[in-house]
Structures are given as structure tokens and as C-alpha cells.
Amino acid sequence: MTSQKIINNKCSCKWQRIKKSVRKKYNYTCQICGKKDNNITVHHKLPVRDIKMLYNLITIEEYKKCKLLWDRNWLIPLCKKCENIIDNPVKNRSFTEEYTLNKRRIL
Ligand SMILES: [Zn+2]
Fold it and tell me: What range does the domain containing 43 cover?
């Protein structure tokens, strides 16, 4: 099971609550393209797999206790399109460059 799936499934209640507050904080607006969507995806600024490596997360309890995973300052809303592009940086090179510039502003 991937780290993101553990958060989505095993830590579902906590994740739903945090997602909701992050969407609200940014007024349901994608932080890259500015699109508004009530069901906007919430994205970890640091990839979950990196956080997993950094803290050596294995059990569900460890995931739940890891503050960085649940820190709202490290979460941003992104629309499906922008999130897809970020997840496939090689396929979308020119966008990735644009994202890197935007990311400097976000981080
Ligand atoms: Zn977007």
C-alpha cells in the first residue's frame, strides 16, 4: 500500500477533517492555476513518500503521530489537472518549470 493510500484509507477521519480545513483556508482555490472547486484536492507540499522516508514511518500509528503529515502549513489545495502534472513531471516538462517558479512563491 502506498503512503498516500494509508493516509486516504487508514487515517481517513483525520485526513477528511484536515482536508476540509485546508480547502476552507484557501477558499477552495487551486494554488497554481487559481481554479475554484468545492471538491478540490489537497496536496502535500513535500511528497508523502519523502516524509515517510524522512521519519521512517511504518505503522499506521506512526503515520498518525507524524506532525509534518498533518501540518496545515505543508498542505495546499490543487485542482486535479495541476496535481496530475506535478505527479508526472517528466511528461509535463514546461509546466513543471512554471510550477517550480510558483512553488518558490508558495513555499
Ligand atoms: Zn490548478
Answer: 3-80
d(CA 107, ligand 1 centre) in Å: 17
Q: Is residue 105 part of a domain?
A: no
Gyration radius of the chain over CA positions: 14
36: helix, strand or coil: strand
In a domain, 31, yes or no: yes
Q: What is the pLDDT of residue 26?
A: 97
**What is the CA(61)–ligand 1 centre distance, in A?**
32
- How much distance in Å is there from the Cα of 34 to the middle of ligand 1? 6
Residue 84: predicted pLDDT: 87
Q: Which helix (H) or strand (E) holds 77?
A: strand 75-78
- Three-state DSSP class for residue 75: strand
For residue 42, report the distance from its CA to the centre of ligand 1, in Å.
Answer: 11
Predicted TM-score (pTM) of this structure: 0.77
How far away, in angstroms, is 68 Cα from ligand 1 center? 23
Number of domains in the chain: 1
Q: Average pLDDT of each block of 10 consecutive residues along the chain (107 residues)? A: 87 94 97 94 91 94 94 95 80 59 59
